[in-house]
Write a structure and sequence with these properties.
Elements (H helix, E strand, L loop, with lengths): L11 H8 L4 E6 L5 H15 L4 E6 L2 H15 L5 E4 L4 E4 L4 E6 L16 E5 L6 H7 L13 E6 L6 H9 L13 E6 L5 H6 L1 H8 L3 H7 L17 H4 E2 L9 E7 L6 E8 L5 E9 L4 H11 L7 E4 L13 H7 L5 E2 L4 H12 L9 E4 L3 H6 L20 H13 L10 H8 L8 H12 L1
Parallel strand pairs: 1-7, 1-8, 2-5, 2-6, 6-7, 9-15, 10-13, 12-15, 13-14
Antiparallel strand pairs: 3-4, 4-5, 10-11, 11-12
Helix pairs in contact: 10-11, 12-14
């Protein structure tokens, strides 16, 4: 039996990726280290090594799948090894292993695979997918074959709708999901410098990455997960917009804003408006899977002892869906009185950009206390909607961003009045008189000096 030589010579970083035995592997970071190549050959090799292996490789859309993984597979994998079903995008190898090429354009598309069982799942450009896709699709990892260990592997650049969950699970390993074990998640970071063939064959590619705008360069050249291409609120910088808790003067107006959800999180933010109209977000509530009365009760408890100029609630909560109470009425019954939010998303996002804007000579008009951990975690990770670039992709964790835009759209340049000094108070008290008696003013100053 002749020895088969595959047309694939992995670079050291690709070898590190293939050698990892972690149940969940992630390869890449920057553009150009050979991510798609590694994903494809990991799938092919798994199918060749163990007969009757059943695996799948994903891209977000079919055109992306066809132009990358399918084309690369048909061009490079020896044709005597497999037969290919064009209609089903399925390669069947001579040893009865199968490799399916699949796409999942929306979260609802995952239900096409609800009866599937895979020995391995690979994903190219994982951040193009939502966390819901990831958590659902790995539930399809199961096998009755004693000699096969189910595994998930992926490659990606920073950015896009899945940036946050990828960063939480693989990069920072701060994920709080039930059952999460950081030891199961291996991130093999690689850059273009780890792909000498690309640099040799296209030396101009490195220069093109060097010439990108600073934030895109950090993401695509250096693989930074702190900034990335497609970031919606590119104005955001932690050292500018995140501040330590400090005293809030009693004269500052207080506001609340709420985005209600049940399966999705309910988010509430508490803000204070200073005398220049700047907003300080000083408290947050963020919880999923709870009924409206529970959320309202918790928000009411956190609000004890405070008074608010107004509270704004997602306008969808005022819709009647039957004979029972609306969500807004449930909130009111549990001590949270509110008014409906404005409905213009793009206008609200424009205000967010304006309030986050800053420069060496200009402070931002909106900051967040460091204890607002979910606001700090989610807002900078939101990305543009690819179909409506002026909007953000609602597939991301946008609940606190929604809260902020509700509130900003209600402000109308509102400012807290500057407290009057004692002299101003004295004059205002007597403003109904045509003029203030000079003798009274003299006595006032004399008393102050004492």
């Amino acid at each position: 039996m002749r020895q088969l030589i595959l047309p694939y010579k992995p670079f050291p970083k690709q070898c590190e990726f293939h050698a990892s035995d972690a149940p969940y592997r992630l390869f890449g970071g920057s553009a150009g280290p050979g991510k798609s190549e590694a994903i494809l050959w990991e799938g092919v090799i798994k199918c060749l090594v163990k007969p009757k292996t059943n695996g799948v490789l994903f891209r977000r859309t079919y055109p992306e799948l066809e132009m990358s993984l399918i084309r690369r597979f048909q061009e490079k994998c020896p044709q005597e090894l497999y037969s290919y079903n064009i209609q089903n995008h399925l390669a069947t190898f001579k040893n009865a292993s199968t490799l399916q090429f699949a796409y999942c354009d929306s979260d609802n598309d995952v239900y096409r695979y609800q009866s599937a069982e895979f020995d391995f799942i690979g994903v190219d450009e994982l951040t193009h997918f939502s966390e819901y896709f990831f958590t659902y699709i790995i539930s399809r990892l199961r096998t009755v074959k004693a000699d096969i260990k189910p595994s998930f592997f992926a490659a990606t650049n920073p950015g896009n709708r899945g940036h946050l969950f990828v960063k939480d699970r693989w990069v920072e390993k701060t994920c709080k999901a039930e059952g999460y074990d950081p030891k199961d998640y291996d991130f093999i970071r690689a850059t273009i410098q780890d792909n000498p063939i690309l640099i040799q064959n296209d030396p101009g590619y490195l220069m093109r990455l060097e010439n990108l705008p600073e934030q895109q360069k950090k993401a695509l050249l250096h693989g930074s997960f702190d900034v990335f291409e497609g970031q919606y609120f590119s104005e955001w910088f932690d050292d500018v917009h995140v501040v330590d808790p400090h005293e809030l003067p009693a004269s500052w107006k207080r506001i609340r804003a709420i985005d209600h959800g049940r399966t999705a999180p309910t988010a509430c933010m508490w803000g204070a408006i200073d005398h220049d109209g700047r907003v300080v977000w000083y408290r947050e509530y963020y919880a999923a899977g709870l009924d409206a009365d529970v959320n309202a009760s918790e928000i009411a408890k956190l609000s004890l002892g405070e008074q608010y100029a107004w509270t704004v609630l997602d306008s969808a909560c005022y819709s009647k869906t039957g004979a029972g109470e609306t969500i807004a009425e449930i909130y009111e019954r549990n001590g949270v009185m509110a008014i409906p939010s404005p409905k213009h998303r793009i206008h609200g996002w424009a205000l967010m950009h304006e309030y986050l804007r800053h420069s060496p000579k200009e402070k931002p008009r909106m900051v967040f206390w460091r204890n607002c951990v979910n606001a700090v975690r989610t807002i900078p990770t939101l990305v543009h909607d690819t179909h409506h670039p002026e909007d953000l992709d609602s597939g991301g964790d946008d609940h606190i961003a929604d809260v902020c835009r509700y509130a900003l759209a209600m402000l109308h340049e509102a400012k807290s009045p500057t407290p009057l000094d004692p002299l101003q108070t004295f004059v205002m008290k007597h403003k109904e008189q045509s003029r203030v008696n000079p003798a009274n003013l003299s006595r006032f100053y004399a008393n102050r000096k004492r």
